[in-house]
Every structure is written in C-alpha cells, then in structure tokens.
Amino acid sequence: CMSCYARAYIYAWLATVAPPPLSRNPRTIDRMAVAMAFRKLLLPRSPPIGVSFPYPFAVSLSSVSRDADSASNYRSATSLLPLSPAGVAAERAIKEGPSRDWKREEIQSIYDSPVLDLIFYGAQVHRHAHKFREVQQCTLLSIKTGGCSEDCAYCPQSARHNTDVKSHKLLNSDIVLETARKAKEAGSTRFCMGAAWRDTVGRKTNFKQILEYIKEIRGMGMEVCCTLGMLEKQQAEELRKAGLTAYNHNLDTSREFYPNVITTRTYDERLKTLEFVREAGINVCSGGIIGLGESAEDRVGLLLTLATLPEHPESVPINALVAVKGTPLQDQKPVEIWEMVRMIATARIVMPKAMVRLSAGRVRFSQAEQALCFLAGANSIFTGEKLLTTPNNDFGADREMFRILGIVPMVPNHQVPEPSHCEVQTEVKNEVVAAAQ
C-alpha cells in the first residue's frame, strides 16, 4: 500500500543520513546495512502513483552503493545473521528441486525454525514451484458410511466406537453423480469418494460400481480421487484403467506413534497400498492428522516417511483432528493455528512440488488464520458442508474467502501419470500371451 511504501522509503533514507560506524554490539545491525537491504528490496520497484520522495534519499543510496567501506559494513552486518534451517532448506529446494534423501534431524530443524521464517521460506518455495495464487478446490463424499471394522481412535465411523454416525450401504449412482455435478458447479475440480472399509477384498460388486462412478465423473471433466482402504495390486490397476486420478491412503502419524492410534492395520500395510497405487500409475495422496496426542517429533517422523518415499506424494493432506464424541480421542484439545502453519510450511519445503492440502479441521480457523496457511504453502482445500461425516466450510464461505484473499480457483489437471516401467512390461506381456491364445 502507499503508506507502507512511504514508510519503507523514509526509513531507508533516514538510515543513510550520516551513518555511524558499526555498533560495538555484534548483535546490532548498523543503519547502513538496513539502508542497503532496503535498496535491494525496494528500489527495483516503482513507488505508487502520487508518492514522491526527497532527493537526498536517492543521492544517499547511490553514494552508499559506491562506498567500499559501506559495502564492507553491509557484509559484516549481514554475516551476523545466518539463514535458519528453513531458509537453508528452501534455498536448496529452489536451486536443486525435490529431494528424497532427507534425514530426520534435517526435517526436525526445519520444523523447529522460527514460525515467521517458516512462513516466509514456505512462501518462497511455493511461489517457485507453483502458481502461488491458485488453490485447488476438492469435494469429499462418503459413499459408504459407518460400520468399519477398524479401530482408528479418531474415526467416528468405526463400529467399535459409540458415536452418532449411522451405517449405510454404498450410495447409488444418482446421488453420487448429482453430488459431483453440484460440486463442479460450485467450483470444485477434484471429486473424492470415501468408503468406510478396511480393504476392498470380497467387495467385487461394490468395487465394480465404484469403477463406473469414476468413469462417469471423469466424463464431467473433473479429477477423481478415492479412499477405499487397503488395495490389492490388481485392484489398483483396475482403478487406473477406469481413469482414477489419485488414491488417498493416509499414514496418519509417525511409525513410532501409530500403534497408539490404530491396531487393526499395520504401518507397513499402509505403505504397501501406496506402493501398489504408485506402480499402477495413479497419483498418491497421503498425509496425516495432527492433534492425536503425538509429539512434535512424531509429526516430523510422518513428514520424513512421506518425503523419503520413492516419489513424493502428488497430494499431502494436513488434517487437524476434529474430536468427535464417542471416540477415544473425544477429549483431545483443539489444534492451534501455529501447529498447522508449522506442518504446512515444513511439508512445502521438503516436498516442494506436492499439493499441500489444508484439510479436516479447517472449519475452526478464521479467514485470517487460513490465509497464513495459504501463505505458508497450502494450495488445496476440501470444500462443501461435510468432510465425510464431520462439519466443513461450505461453498459460499470459501467463495467469499477466495474473493477477499485474491485466490484463483485451480483448473483441473487431467494428466494421470504413466504406469511404472515394470507395469508397462507386464501389460505388454499379457497382450502377447492373449494374442497367442
């Protein structure tokens, strides 16, 4: 704004008028260094129309730039301010691109960086790797609710918990396709379908029906994602052939904390499903939940696992626990916005090209708090009144937020990754065998 430009220019001008020598206090940056910083950041830009600045400012800065002693002072002063781990990692991500050789202590140091550094450097990486004003809108529908045999401590759909969620069978095509059409009209470009199953084994009829849903929704011009529990290799291949864009299978938390949350499915089983999805050529969508009672080290452990997969997930949902009455985690305290910001910014820096999704629990955050998440690197949200069975921000509220923040809805990406080399060889081999028969 005009007042910000004016203040910045005036401060820089004053800092160059009769600059004193460097302070004896090594923690103090002299005014010369401040002036040089303002010169670097502001002079390339034109001031707003109608704002003029006194001539001595320009003369003073020009003389500063030619003064060897001043340049020496600037280097000495700035050398006292080393980059935080978040800044070092962000520079690496921008120069070298995505990395999969992260160490736990590296990600921990990024996560522990000052929160303002995390927001700033997360934004830098975000702007380098993505169109920073674009945010993808996704809608998630529970197509089969409740009665799940799993014991996930956070989930109201578990048959083991005493919640108000009622079990129902797979929704028919009319309901699913109409919901998808309404979501598209409201601005969503990805339609996600969730079924409360442990796995898809023994569900041939329902699975075939879901394959048809995928084809129909892709025909509407939308991306399609599913979360149906654990998959077998053959089922992943069928989903890809139907046109599935992405498959969601969250790791939830770190390997170490995982047994405190779930005992009916192992961590390695989750990783195996991700392997089948990746090999079939479907985009992997995998993230986790914070607020389960885990430590900061567990959050880092989750990000470490995701960031060292053979390929970074295409999408990384960051969920804040929505504590539901009747679940073992009903009394967990709400997640604070700074916890979400740390997770989002760290995920953005260590997985620069991934879509970082501000997911469950967003309904508790104000527009200003959500803006911090977008600034830190989030570029995708779930929109619509419900997220499976819990409350969520409705389309109208998100439309208004986009208007206020100047966010542009992302257009759908219909490119589905090619199957892996091994998978291509298998298909060719099968075709040859079929032809011979």
Describe the structure.
With 437 residues, the chain is an alpha/beta fold. The chain is built from 16 helices and 12 strands. The strands form 2 sheets. Strands 1, 2, 3, 4, 5, 6, 7, 8, 9 and 12 form a 10-stranded parallel beta sheet that branches. Strands 10-11 form a two-stranded antiparallel sheet. β8, α14 and β9 form a beta-alpha-beta unit. The longest helix has 16 residues. The C terminus is likely disordered.
In short:
With 437 residues, the protein is an alpha/beta fold. The protein has helices spanning 2-16, 31-42, 55-66, 68-78, 85-96, 104-111, 115-129, 173-185, 204-219, 233-242, 267-280, 296-307, 337-350, 367-376, 395-405, 421-436; strands spanning 134-144, 190-195, 223-227, 246-248, 283-285, 288-290, 315-320, 355-358, 380-382, 386-387, 390-391, 408-409. The longest helix is centred in the middle third of the chain and has 16 residues, at 204-219.
Along the chain, the helix and strand elements come as: HHHHHHHEHEHEHEHEEHEHEHEEEHEH
Shape from CA axes? globular
Query: What is the terminal-to-terminal distance?
Result: 73 Å
Tell me what portion of residues adopts beta-strand conformation: 5-15%
Average pLDDT figure: 81
**Major beta-sheet overview:** 10 strands, parallel
Strand runs, count: 12
